[in-house]
Specification:
Blueprint: E1 14-15, H1 31-43, E2 48-51, E3 54-55, H2 64-80, E4 86-89, E5 92-94, H3 97-105, E6 116-120, H4 130-139, E7 143-147, H5 157-165, E8 169-173, H6 174-177, H7 183-194, E9 200-202, H8 211-214, H9 217-224
Parallel strand pairs: 1-2, 2-4, 3-5, 5-6, 6-7, 7-8, 8-9
Amino acid sequence: MFFKRIKPKLNFITDIHSHILPGIDDGAEELDDSIAMVEGLIELKLENLYFSPHINGIRFPNTNKSIKEKYDLLRGELIKRSIHIKTNVCAEYFIDSSFRQSAISGDKIICLPFNHVLVETSLTQKSMILHSVIFELREKGFLPILAHPERYLYFKKDDFKDLKRIGCKFQLNMLSLAGYYGKSVKENARNLIRENMIDFAGTDLHNKHQIKYLKNKRLINEINSINVQNDIFLS
């Protein structure tokens, strides 16, 4: 008798972090790449996707208008190809003086539901304004989510605790637990999990080749051991 092998399934259906919109940042380059990435996430049984392109000064000077144009392009193609999945858009904001000024002046921030805003900082050096910007966002009624805290290897345990204390939530990259960014990042991710600091998980998908890393049974079981809140954003 042959038994069908049951594939492990994530215990949430919402991805809040991906770079799937075509030709807008360091993610998907062409529309066909975007489609392949969406289809890969559907294979993972995800049903609700938030595309989150970078907004990062000179490197990725995206605007609300440019993001909406790319989103409408991709959404139209998904409909044309009869690919049925819930989608929406937010942005991943790099915390610098430009973003700080925009937030203070009241420029419209492309948020996840309930005023959650996805932010990141430098992977190589500590930001002198990170804590103050997080505090200012909270003061204005936003709920900041720091993307991939495990990748900031210069952070110490107290740095993470200080950010949590002032109301910052943390989003773990699934690829980090897959070892995609190296052993140190993977260890950092597991330490944050042990300290119960992770609030959300995200693929942070940048290309279709990363999908294979996300299909690992051990990875999915490890992700499922975290009580993540992704599905509060069901659209």
